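Thread: iron/sulfur cluster complex, take 2
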Amino acid sequence: MTNGPTFWDIVRERSGENIHRCFYCQKCTAGCPTASVMDYKPAQVLRLIQLGRKDGVLDSQAIWLCVGCETCGTRCPNHIRLAPVFDTLRYMALEEGYRPDPMVYALHRSFLNSIRLWGRVHELSMLMEYKLRSRDLFSDLGMGVGLILKGKISFLPERIRGVSEVRRLYK
Ligand code: SF4
Ligand code: SF4
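Output below.
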């Protein structure tokens, strides 16, 4: 038995979310757009945290598949937002040497780099970086060209006016 903070305490403190209030109603899981591809569903991740299953949580792919849409937070009867919880778990996983699926990690890096560079996502350059990072150059090429030709993806990026403030946030 240890006297230090539990995994549950640490996640609660770092995320700022009252995860101890979760009573496992699973409304978060029912509304989550990415739950179907997660190895543990959002409510299950909370349950594993409550049970102190740190390795299982930090090694899961679920924590990398949350897209931060906040649907769970609006559905939860206890106002628990899982996006900050998953953010915290990703930080903790990296700090402790866990690595996500390389393709998922490549997408995260490309997405964040795009925001740092332009102040918002520029899909085309983000996808090009993702393709290079993941070394999966040709799998969606036809769809990408179609989106560009239909004007769904802009060819040139636009940098927002406050990009220096965005970069300061990154620092
Ligand atoms: S909706 Fe809220 S209370 Fe219900 S399982 Fe999800 S986090 Fe827990
Ligand atoms: S914020 Fe994450 S966990 Fe919550 S519904 Fe959206 S994708 Fe699912």
